[in-house]
Amino acid sequence: SGGPDIWQARMHSDGTFGAVERIAPDGVEDQYKPAVASHGNGSSQVIWSSRQVSAGVLENIEGATLGASGAASAEFLVSMGLGRQSEVRFATDGTDHIAVFESEGDEEARILAQRVDALGNPIESEPVVVGTLPESRFPRPQVAWSGTQYLVTWTFGGAVYGRRLEADLTFVDPAPVQLFSDTAGETGVAALGSDFFVAYPHTFSGDQRSLKGAVISGSDLSVIGSLMTIGGGFAIRPVARTIGDRVLVFWEKQVNHDNDASTISAVWIEPDGTVGPSMVVSQSGDSDHPDVAVAEDRMLVTWMDEFSTTDTGVEGRILGLDGSFLTPEFTICNAHKEQMFPACGWSGSFFTVAWSDMRGLGQIDQLRGDVYMTRVDADGTVLDPGGVQVTDGPLPEDLPAVVGCADACIIAFSQLHGTCGSPEVQRIGYVSVRQLGVADVEEGTVGGFAFQTGPNPFQEELRISWQGALRSVGDAGNVEIIGIDGRRIWSAPMTGVDGSVAWNGKTRQGHAAPAGAYFVRMRLGADEVGTARVLRVR
């Protein structure tokens, strides 16, 4: 029923072998790479690597004790492989954020929740375990905030489960509650007043999936009213957002199971839980993976558009909070190769869109992506055309999620670690978009001095310009680049009242400075008149 197993054959003192016997019961895992050590009394210790077949490449170290007669003890766990964290999603209470994600391990997957502040710093040292389930791929947790509590939802075995948490992550429900039993994919969840609305795809024939949903009581997680069909087509990937006193549910609407040409559709859920008007947001030929960021008076809808099998870009559209179209569909990024799985958030002053980007791949590389981002103005203007590289690791970083408040956005993403890139050491990484945006500049005190840096982030060259310098301190101005360890790695004199210099990303010794954060410091005489933080990406 499984793969290879660990067997034994004992050699006697006369050089003959005894019976060949299996050490551990025949299970569903692959067992390989055994190692043996003697206890010195005829018994021995055997350990081996164990790979759960259903889990892909999640690995543990297991073992058994062999008696002098060759009898094996029950197998036992020596070391459990690290969990594979992925599928992060956010909700915000307006001050802090909650991140929910899954962590897959051997024979168990956990739904985890952790709060982070506006810059991505964890509030709890460890996440809380919202639910556990037998090792399963992609339960895809979702989360929504009602103003008083969070609801976390996920799927397993064709059912939707939910559990409520207080703002401090104290559990309202003593255990997860099954909400529905007929799902065929991930959920979308949003607050509807003090209650919640949960949407999910339902397979009603081999070739079609409808979108179903219901109002879930914020008091006891019971279904209020009846379960409704709210959308048609081959419906997948619902995204629900609270808009005033209503909920707007978006989804990817394919033609059918075998024809994945798709549009992004949406339907209103009225305050009383009834189904309202529907609309088509994207008319492009193959729109996938929608996400939505809601601002004070508008929203941004993003999706990926597959132009060909090797060319995928990110597109978007600005809608009013009444569902009206404020812009046509527009391109956010269509660089070389593929831009995939976009996510978006609103900081309070700009939208941030992040995606998995494959432009750095070679001709025969697998999909080892990096995370890129751009800011989008409220009117739909793309502020960082072509995108800004956020990550550049030797192993994949992908599947971003974005959340924002307090004039900053956080991008979370899955990233692999380790020399072999084993998925069991996949972790969630965070980066603040405030750090990636325009640097905060401390105004100078000398003669109305001001300066600017850009682009930020930068790859090869950073330009530093100033206005109003050297009016009272002669020619004693200086521009310095400071590493995060506080050491000055480059400097250049300031000449003229207005001027600029360019840093080529190298140290004073001519070595390339590594990717990371740096400080630009401006000095006029003995005065430090301004600093800015910049990020170099490679």
Automatic annotation (TrEMBL):
It comes from the Bacteria. This is FlgD Ig-like domain-containing protein. It comes from Eiseniibacteriota bacterium.
